[in-house]
Write a structure and sequence with these properties.
By secondary structure, this protein is an alpha/beta fold. The chain folds into 2 domains: about 1-255, TIM Barrel (Alpha-Beta Barrel); about 305-375, Arc Repressor Mutant, subunit A. Helices cover about 40% and strands about 20% of the residues.
Length: about 375
C-alpha cells in the first residue's frame, strides 16, 4: 500500500502580508530543537506504517529553506531510516528564492530531493515589495537556474495574480519569464485576502488597492491560454505541467489517497480518518519531547461529508471523478447521491458527464467554487 508523507517546517524569515499559513518568523533559537523533535516524531511513526511504501514526500512550510542544509538533511536521514521509500519516490521541498544557494541545493539533490518548488509569486520587484516578499525578481531567476545547475530537472514555481497595483502586462511578463526559464511545472493562484492578515486589515481600512474583477479575470484567462498554448497540461485548477511533471504528492490530496503529516500543524488522512497536530511550535516541542502525541484533532467525518470531500477534491483535477471509484469508496453511485446537483451543474455548462465520469468544463474550472458548493451536505 502506498503512502505520501508531508513534513511541516513552520519557520520563515518574514511573514508575507497575505499569508495565513501556520508559520512563524524570528524563532531561529528553536530551529535545532524543532528538528530534533520532528525527527523523534518521524522515528516513532515508522514502525506503525511499516507495511506502507512511501512513494511521495513533500517538505513544506513556512519556508523549509530558511533552515541550514544540515538540519534539512537530518530530517531526510530520519525519513530514510524510519520508512520504506520507493526507489522512484517523488521527494519535493518548498523554498524561498531569497534563502537558497548552490551548496544547499546541491546537498539536497545529492541526498534524494528531486523536486524543488520556489515561491516566486512574481518577477516584478515592485509587486514583491507590495506583498512583503524578501526576495527580488532576479533572485527568483537565479534560484531557478541554480537549482537546474544543481541537477533539479523537476522545478516548480508559484505565481500569483490579482496582487496590489498589478497589471495584466506585469503578469504576462512573469508568465513569459517562467516559460523562458524552461520550468516544467507552474502553479498559478489568485490572491485571496484571508482574515487576520495584514492585507485584511489594509482592505478593511481602504488602504489595499486591488485590481478590478475584470482585470483579475483577464489575468486568469491569460494564464489558461498562454500556458496551454505553450505545451503545459492543466491537470488541476491552479496547476500546469509539462507531460510527466505533474506533482504526484499533491495528486494524493485531490484523489482522496492516504497521506501522513509530521511536524507542528501537519495534517494526516489515513483510511478516512483525519488528524491534525497542534499548530503551536512550543506546545509541539513539549508534547513530543515528553513522549506525548502532538495530535490535537482526530476525527472520522460523517459519510455525507466524506462524499462531498471526495467530489470537490477530485473535481479540481482535469481527470475529474469516476463513478466506479466513488462506488468503491461508498457503495453508492454518484447519480444516487448527487443526481440533482449534477443535472443542474451540467445544464449550466459547469460540468460534463461522460463514460461514467464527471469533469469540470473550462467554465467550471473558472468558477469552481460554485460547483463545489453544490456538493456540500
Amino acid at each position: 500500500m502506498n503512502l505520501g508523507l508531508y513534513i511541516h517546517i513552520p519557520f520563515c524569515k518574514q511573514k508575507c502580508l497575505y499569508c495565513d499559513f501556520p508559520s512563524y518568523s524570528h524563532l531561529e533559537s528553536l530551529y535545532e530543537s524543532y528538528i530534533d523533535a520532528l525527527c523523534r516524531e518521524i522515528t516513532g511513526q515508522g514502525v506503525l506504517f511499516s507495511s506502507y511504501q512511501v512513494d511521495t514526500i513533500y517538505i513544506g512550510g513556512g519556508t523549509p529553506s530558511v533552515l541550514p542544509a544540515a538540519l534539512l538533511l537530518k530530517v531526510i536521514g530520519a525519513l530514510n531510516k524510519s520508512f520504506t521509500i520507493t526507489s522512484d519516490a517523488e521527494i519535493s521541498m518548498e523554498a524561498n528564492p531569497g534563502t537558497v544557494n548552490n551548496d544547499m541545493l546541491t546537498a539536497l539533490r545529492s541526498h534524494g530531493v528531486n523536486r524543488i518548488s520556489f515561491g516566486v509569486q512574481s518577477f516584478s520587484d515592485t509587486l514583491l515589495q507590495e506583498v512583503g516578499r524578501i526576495h527580488t525578481g532576479d533572485d527568483g531567476i537565479h534560484a531557478v537556474r541554480t537549482a537546474q545547475q544543481a541537477g533539479f530537472s523537476n522545478v516548480n514555481i508559484d505565481l500569483m495574480y490579482g496582487l496590489p497595483v498589478q497589471t495584466l502586462k506585469d503578469f504576462q511578463k512573469s508568465l513569459r519569464l517562467a516559460y523562458e526559464l524552461a520550468i516544467p511545472h507552474i502553479s498559478v493562484y489568485g490572491l485571496k485576502v484571508e482574515e487576520e492578515t495584514p492585507f485584511a486589515n489594509r482592505l478593511a481600512s481602504g488602504k489595499l488597492i486591488l485590481p478590478s474583477e475584470e482585470e483579475e479575470e483577464a489575468m486568469y484567462d491569460e494564464t489558461v491560454e498562454y500556458l496551454t498554448l505553450s505545451g503545459y497540461q492543466r491537470y488541476e485548477i491552479s496547476n500546469y505541467a509539462l507531460p510527466g511533471f505533474s506533482c504526484r504528492h499533491n495528486l494524493k490530496y485531490w484523489n482522496y489517497s492516504s497521506f501522513l503529516g509530521k511536524g507542528a500543524a501537519a495534517h494526516s488522512f489515513i483510511n478516512g480518518e483525519r488528524l491534525a497536530n497542534t499548530r503551536d511550535v512550543r506546545t509541539y516541542l513539549k508534547r513530543v519531547n515528553s513522549g506525548q502525541s502532538p495530535v490535537e484533532v482526530k476525527e472520522i467525518p460523517d459519510e455525507p461529508v466524506q462524499m462531498a470531500e471526495f467530489c470537490f477534491l477530485g473535481l479540481r483535477t482535469a481527470a475529474g471523478i469516476s463513478n466506479d471509484t466513488f462506488y468503491r469508496f461508498f457503495g453508492k453511485s454518484l447519480q444516487q447521491m448527487f443526481g440533482k446537483p449534477l443535472a443542474s451543474l451540467e445544464a449550466k455548462g459547469l460540468i460534463c458527464m461522460e463514460n461514467q465520469s464527471v469533469k469540470l468544463t473550462p467554465l467550471g474550472m473558472k468558477y469552481g467554487n460554485s460547483v463545489f458548493q453544490a456538493f456540500l451536505p
